[in-house]
Design a protein that fits this description.
The protein is built from nine helices and four strands, in the order E-H-E-E-H-E-H-H-H-H-H-H-H. It is of the alpha+beta class. It has three domains: about 1-65, Alpha-Beta Plaits, CATH 3.30.70; about 65-80 and about 90-115; about 120-185, Arc Repressor Mutant, subunit A (Orthogonal Bundle).
Length: about 190
């Protein structure tokens, strides 16, 4: 049995879910971003208790099929932008279609309808947050960051960065405002 969990977008979230499951004595297999493979079905009591624990951690169980698909889209984006060392070999629409086995137009329409934003804007938000992180770490130059985030050029990254943040990447780096970063769960 699989559980789908909303807002589970970081390693910290995985640790919280693992602790909740362990605390309730629920046997599980793999824990991935947004989903958990259970070894047995939950009792109604376990489900209620798990929902309470998840809610305390600002997470929630998803049971609606459309919401599950939205979370899967978000998971693919988060993994691609934040946890992958290589950009996808194909464009993102093909990559998403391949990963989720749905037509991209369907996914894009559903995502926009449910979230009020486009998949493209969601990806851009995450790419800019990752760019902020990489700029603050000061280990890569702007050319390396633009390559790592699959931008066609430094100019393209800089233009999107300024459009989203109001600052150039260089100016942002000079400011080193750690408070200007947004938690992944809030994107």
């Amino acid at each position: 049995m699989k559980l789908y969990i909303k807002y589970m977008v970081s390693i910290r979230c995985k640790i919280l879910v693992k602790a909740a499951l362990d605390g309730l004595g629920i046997r599980y297999g793999a824990i991935e971003l947004g989903e958990v493979e259970l070894k047995e079905s939950l009792t109604p009591e376990q489900k209620v208790e798990l929902q309470k624990l998840l809610k305390n951690a600002a997470l929630e169980l998803i049971e609606d099929k459309r919401a599950v698909l939205i979370e899967k889209i978000k998971k693919v984006v988060v993994e691609m932008v934040h946890y992958s060392d290589e950009p996808p070999k194909s464009n993102f629409s093909d990559f998403l279609t391949e990963k989720l086995d749905y037509d991209y137009n369907y996914l894009a329409g559903l995502f926009s309808e449910v979230t009020g934003t486009t998949i493209e804007h969601f990806i851009i938000s995450h790419k800019i947050e990752k760019a902020k992180e990489l700029l603050l770490y000061d280990e890569l130059n702007l050319t390396e960051i633009s390559y790592k985030l699959n931008y066609s050029s430094v100019a393209h990254l800089s233009n999107q960065f300024k459009k989203v943040t109001g600052l150039t990447p260089t100016y942002f780096k000079k400011l080193k405002q750690h408070k200007s970063r947004i938690e992944l769960e809030k994107l």
